[in-house]
Design brief:
The chain folds into three domains: about 100 residues, Butyryl-Coa Dehydrogenase, subunit A, domain 1 (Orthogonal Bundle), CATH 1.10.540.10; about 110 residues, Butyryl-CoA Dehydrogenase, subunit A, domain 2; about 150 residues, Butyryl-CoA Dehydrogenase, subunit A, domain 3, CATH 1.20.140.10. The chain contains 13 helices and ten strands. Helix 7 runs parallel beside helix 10. The protein binds flavin-adenine dinucleotide. The site of flavin-adenine dinucleotide has 21 residues, from strand 1, strand 3 and helix 13.
């Protein structure tokens, strides 16, 4: 077993870390404030610097300007980007665009790639992924899918209701999951839909626990006889559920990578207060109950890191199906760890932690969604237990 990164990847990792430390973190506050005012000039300038530094879309193949990193390389870099909640955006590696780029690369027709993938890679447009529907439609259980696509003459007519389409309001196109037959396995198909096509109604952006930030605005949509041609189908008709898995397994792992960097930075920020604030005659960090929280957080991050790297290694070897329960383990563990750590960061800083003078409270509000989005904890728990019963888990790998 060798945990050392190849020298070129190590150098790239250091470059990304320096970029995040020197340029992204100092600009964080400005980016958030500008975003509230509908401006993105600081973000755009960071993106230009990332391009100049040859750090743009490193996850993509060379023909799209990337470095063809593969899951292990992404793991090394995305953890660094994730140290800031706006970091991944600076390199055009943020959700949902990064997962959508991956999906278009795998499954889109040449005309769709040319129309949508090229500008998406360039960040001149953004995208969204529309699978979830309000009850009784698709949620934790995608088989509840209600949105339909029917073939009418030479086009498809899409009708339905979606919500939690992250970034949909500002997106140029949506990847819409719709029912094309009653077959339980092959009954769903994904379509690439122009966000401004006739019949697409952006009902609202939901007000949620977290303040909206960059693309992380939760759109509600209605589709009324939205017409698309065959070229808009991703993969084959009936391949929607399979493609959803193909998108979600790596996409949830990239969430884990970013969240690990975020958790690590949060813990790092605790040094100053724990080392300087005195209570009952000694620094907070010398109280065992504070040490317990630090050690728990360190264990959580380290365990999550190993789970994520192990699963990335499986994906790198093309073992996508076998990797699925491991991605569920990593996702459940890292999401819960992130929430626990941020909650403890607030606790360890007392009133200061609860205030917006430090970022923990705001970060906690963002982070809480991690336990719901891309499958709630309980569904991952179900997958892990199911695959354990089937003898598919090698826990002592
Ligand atoms: C911030 C955010 C961003 C999102 N972005 C997107 C997006 O871009 N595109 C998209 O399509 N969707 C997106 N989602 C939707 C997300 O994937 C769903 O919320 C999630 O799959 C759960 O579906 P649901 O909300 O309908 O919950 P339900 O299906 O109604 O489930 C409710 C609760 O029931 C419990 N539960 C469900 N199943 C089981 C089970 N088998 N066993 C035990 N308990 C269970 C869980 O606690 C779950 O939270 C986003 C969600 C959030 C919060």
């Amino acid at each position: 077993m060798n945990f050392e990164l190849p020298p070129d990847l190590q150098a790239l990792r250091e470059q990304v870390r320096e970029f995040v430390d020197d340029l992204v973190i100092p600009a964080e506050r400005a980016i958030v404030e500008e975003d509230r005012a509908g401006d993105d000039s600081t973000l755009r300038s960071l993106q230009a610097q990332a391009r100049d530094a040859d750090l743009w879309v490193p996850h993509l193949p060379a023909e799209y300007g990337g470095k063809g990193l593969g899951p292990l390389g992404m793991c090394a870099l995305f953890r660094e980007m994730g140290r800031s909640p706006v970091g991944a955006r600076a390199f055009n590696c943020d959700a949902p665009d990064q997962g959508n780029m991956d999906l278009l690369l795998r499954a889109a027709s040449p005309s769709i790639r040319e129309r949508w993938l090229t500008p998406l890679v360039d960040a001149s447009i953004t995208s969204a992924f529309a699978m979830t529907e309000p009850a009784p439609g698709a949620g934790a259980d995608p088989s509840n899918l209600r949105t339909t696509a029917k073939k009418v003459g030479d086009h498809w007519s899409i009708a339905g209701h979606k919500w939690y389409t992250t970034g949909g309001g500002k997106a140029s196109f949506l990847i819409v999951m719709a029912r094309t037959s009653d077959d339980p396995r092959e009954g769903a198909t994904m379509f690439v839909v122009d966000r401004h096509a006739e019949g697409v109604e952006h009902v609202r952006d939901l007000d949620t626990m977290a303040e909206p930030l960059l693309a992380h605005r939760e759109g509600e949509f209605r589709f009324d006889d939205v017409r698309v041609g065959d070229e808009a189908v991703l993969g084959r008709v009936g391949e929607g559920f399979r493609l959803a898995q193909a998108r979600l397994v790596p996409a949830r792992l990239t969430h884990c990578m970013r969240w690990l960097g975020w958790a690590d930075r949060a813990l790092e920020l605790c040094r100053w207060y724990l080392g300087s604030r005195k209570s009952f005659g000694k620094e907070l960090g010398r109280h065992q109950m504070m040490q317990q929280k630090i050690a728990d957080a360190a264990l959580d991050i380290h365990a999550g890191n190993l789970m994520t790297m192990h699963c990335a290694w499986m994906l790198q070897r093309g073992e996508d199906k076998a990797a699925r329960p491991y991605s569920s383990m990593a996702k459940r563990h890292v999401a819960q760890a992130l929430c626990r750590i941020l909650d403890d960061c607030i606790q360890m800083h007392g009133g200061l932690g609860f205030s917006d003078d430090l970022p923990f409270a705001q970060w906690y509000r963002f982070a809480r969604a991690s336990r719901i989005a891309d499958g709630p904890d309980e569904v991952h728990t179900m997958v892990i237990a199911r695959d354990w019963f089937r003898g598919r888990l090698n826990l002592l790998v």
